[in-house]
Design goal:
- Helix content is 10%, strand content 46%.
- It is mainly β.
- It has a single domain, classed as Maltoporin, Chain A (Beta Barrel).
- It has a 22-stranded antiparallel beta barrel.
- A hairpin with a 2-residue loop joins β4 and β5.
Length: 796
């Protein structure tokens, strides 16, 4: 660490360290003065509403009051009488975190990063990787900025990071290629949660690095909030629920933004309505951008191509729509939604620009979810989720860059996926030494993949792999022990069985002397990964909470790692699957300290993970074209990559803080800081490829009930810890951002809308040439240059 810090050479390093020192000093003074109260003018900064998250654990604790539906059910009244008295719940009037306040989650056993609705509206971004790019411990793959960027957590991506929407897998093909988009648009998302640690046991071993969970209201779990104000679902009401049943309600929201760097326009409309026992939702959105501006020439190894100040072949277009509804009954609800996602975007880089490569993707997804709280002594809640995805995208481009008439489909990816997950949360019981709450889960999923290529019909190399399919069946259990209000523990376990079916040739032995490929061999491997975790939460002095978590997680190889057998233009690799791969095992320890209230809020985490049989693409140094026979030929353009296994160690840490310094002009001003690093090496000391650099940053802010003003500088150090073969170092950069936003209530009778938030955000204000070290195209693709984004949201 000290070696890395000595490499601070650019403007901003010293100021960031001073900000961190100031924050630490202020916290020390605050603890020394405890339990003294904050000054009256700072009261708004110390009363921070709790952040509600849904992804980390299947155990949800609720305080059931005297007049709740559960208690009413025990009074002896009939079910019909209860239904008459209590219809569908109304959406709570939630106390959202104040604008610009750092959301810190302290009631979970591992670090949870939350991006609330208002921050999503301010930050924008066409992909989850863009939205999360600067969060501590997280970045994006940035293969095609604004169009294709998958979240990377602590240096882990694709097959080790799960992405879910409203509790089910996002579908798509983003884990099969870094050029593929994530079919979840932030424009239609209300909250994003990034969960590390034991969440892997809830969502599957392919979430070993973490889970990115996006939520929205496409399947309503409550009536619209313009109905009489009730508490959260299942809690007491301020008016008889029956009155809500006779009062239909409609709410609407518009989301609009313009960006200068890419001449981008985005807009979305969300509608919610309900009455009686029904609630409905509909939304539609769309965005379009042109080639984005860049501050310098993008191609490091070729200075001969015209660019004209923009990243060639980087334009995007996307749209989507969804409609859903829910039926509420005594003690629960059931709902469904159908969603359509469409995206047409270009792939930047030399090869993409030469061939005018673009991806035309379409996803149709059906989701069902529900919840039921029976009047039972043993069962608290039953929940279920189900989803079915039909995904297809065509990779389109010129077969011959010199012949515009050769434009056509070069590759097609399809993914048909189904998933069902059910959880049963049992009633807490007193085990004398602790109050114990248990949740049991069952999950089953099926996936069929194909990647045919019209360029090679009827040949062994017809795409990356033959059609393959996989089936996963899993069971898991979470147990929470509340020893006291200050001390809690969690023990969780998961076992799953995975069966895969596909074909792959044995490279290179399948080639006969005459060059004719041998018949493909059918393979049907199966695996039974087993995982477990244990965690402890402890309240500490000064409003802090400490946590320690240990995990043992096994992951089965995925189809692409087993069955790949051809050129993959996105990564510029010729991928060779390994049918002999075994289960990958991760042993992790994470320590964290967090504080969510008071004028100084922070979270700090350190972790260590040892992988046995870590699966990765091993570059051999041999170059290939479209088939194995071409490997080693002069002029070949694809790096031969064989899926291999080695032991590896990941260690790192994250820190972010926010300090309310004091009152100024009727509001609060303060400073904030962040820091993250990850170091990943194989057992022989060589570097794991594509690891994010050390980053540190900080800034100042001012906020009141309406305004938020902020300036932040994030410095990324140069990344010189690169793989031995075919990975180049990446220069450091400074990312300067500034924003001003205004939020206010409106008089609907005068303005039509009842609430507005609008603002302006400046990105990369130093117009730096930013290359993302984890991107396969970093030597040919620059991140967008200086730009301004103006946005406005109205609620009706």
């Amino acid at each position: 660490m000290s070696f890395e810090l000595r490499r601070v050479q650019r403007l901003g390093g010293a100021s960031l360290l001073l900000l961190g020192a100031a924050a630490t000093s202020a916290f020390a003074q605050e603890l020394a003065q405890a339990p003294a109260q904050a000054p009256a003018q700072d009261k708004s900064s110390t009363e921070i509403p709790a952040v509600t998250v849904t992804a980390p654990s299947p155990i949800v604790r609720r305080v059931v009051p005297t007049r709740s539906p559960v208690r009413v059910a025990r009074t002896g009244r009939s079910r019909s009488q209860q239904r008459t008295a209590e219809a569908a719940p109304a959406a709570p009037v939630a106390t959202a975190p104040q604008q610009g306040v750092l959301p810190v989650v302290t009631n979970q056993f591992a670090t949870v990063t939350v991006v609330p609705n208002e921050e999503i509206r301010r930050e924008g971004g066409g992909q989850l990787g863009d939205l999360l790019f600067s969060k501590p411990g997280i970045t994006g793959s940035s293969f095609a900025p604004g169009a294709s960027s998958r979240p990377i957590i602590r240096g882990l991506d694709v097959n080790r990071v799960g992405i879910v929407e409203n509790g089910t897998n996002s579908g798509g093909a983003s884990d099969l290629g870094e050029d593929h988009f994530v079919p979840i648009d932030p424009l239609a998302t209300n909250q994003v949660e990034v969960v590390r640690g034991p969440a892997a046991l809830r969502y599957g071993s392919t979430s070993i690095g973490g889970v990115v969970s996006a939520t929205n209201n496409r399947i309503p779990d409550a009536l619209p909030s313009c109905a009489p104000s009730f508490q959260a679902y299942g809690l007491p009401t301020k008016a008889p629920l029956a009155s809500a049943a006779t009062s239909p309600c409609v709410t609407a929201e518009t989301r609009t933004a313009f960006s200068s760097v890419d001449r981008g326009v985005e807009s979305g409309v969300l509608l919610d309505t309900g009455g009686g026992n029904f609630a409905f939702h509909a939304d539609a959105y769309g965005r379009t951008t042109s080639d984005y501006n860049i501050p310098a020439y993008p191609y490091l190894n070729d200075q001969s191509r015209p660019v004209n100040g923009r990243q060639p072949n980087s334009a995007t277009r996307s749209d989507g729509a969804s409609i859903g509804g829910s039926y509420f009954f005594q003690g629960g609800y059931i709902g469904a939604a159908i969603t359509q996602n469409d995206s047409l975007y270009h792939i930047p880089g030399i090869d993409g620009a030469d061939h005018q490569t673009r991806i035309d993707g379409h996803q149709t997804k059906i989701n069902v979810k529900g919840e039921y709280r029976p009047d039972a002594t043993a069962i608290d809640t039953i929940r279920f989720w189900a989803g079915a995805t039909d995904y297809r995208h065509n990779e389109i481009g010129l077969a011959d860059p010199a012949d515009l008439n050769s434009d056509g489909i070069r590759q097609t990816f399809t993914n048909k996926e189904q998933e069902i997950r059910t959880e049963v949360q049992l009633m807490p019981f007193n085990a004398r030494f602790a109050e114990v709450t248990t949740a049991l889960g069952f999950q089953v999923g099926h996936q069929e993949l194909s990647a045919p290529s019209p360029d090679n019909p009827g040949t062994l190399f017809n795409g990356l792999w033959d059609p393959n399919n996989s089936t996963r069946v899993a069971g898991y259990a979470f147990n929470e022990f509340r020893f006291t209000e200050a001390t809690r523990a969690q023990i969780a376990g998961r076992i799953e069985h995975v069966e895969l079916h596909g074909t792959t040739p044995n490279f290179p032995a399948d080639y006969l002397p005459d060059g004719t490929p041998q018949a493909a061999i059918s393979r049907n491997p199966s695996f039974t990964p087993k995982s477990g975790s244990i965690g402890l939460l402890q309240d500490l002095p000064g409003g802090m909470v400490g946590s320690i978590t240990a995990q043992y997680v096994e992951r089965a190889p995925k189809a692409a790692e087993l069955f790949s057998r051809g050129g993959h233009d996105a990564t510029a690799t010729f991928d060779i699957g390994n049918p002999n791969l075994t289960i990958e095992t991760a042993k992790s320890v994470e320590l964290g300290v967090r504080r969510a209230t008071g004028p100084f809020r922070f979270e700090a985490t350190v972790y260590y993970t040892h992988f046995d049989n870590f699966i990765y693409r091993r570059l051999t140094g041999v170059m290939c074209d479209d088939d194995f026979a071409s490997c080693g030929n002069p002029g070949a353009e694809l790096n031969q990559a064989v899926y291999s296994q080695r032991n590896a160690n990941f260690r790192g840490g994250e820190f972010q803080s926010q300090l309310d310094v004091g009152a100024f002009q009727g509001g609060i001003w303060g400073i904030e800081n962040q820091f993250d690093f990850v170091r990943a090496t194989f057992s022989d000391g060589t570097n794991v490829p594509r690891i994010p650099p050390l980053r540190m940053g900080g800034g100042v802010f001012w906020r009141d009930d309406n305004w938020l003003m902020r300036v932040n500088l994030l410095h990324a150090f140069a990344q010189d810890n690169v793989a031995v073969i075919a990975e180049t170092p990446t220069a450091g950069y400074n990312l300067l951002k500034a924003e001003v936003s205004y939020k206010t209530k409106l008089d609907p009778s005068r303005f039509g809308a009842r609430e507005m938030i609008a603002g302006i955000v400046g990105n990369n204000l130093l117009n730096e040439s930013i290359r993302n070290s984890v991107s396969y195209t970093k030597d040919e693709v620059l991140m967008p240059g200086i730009g301004v984004r103006a946005f406005a949201n109205f609620k009706f």
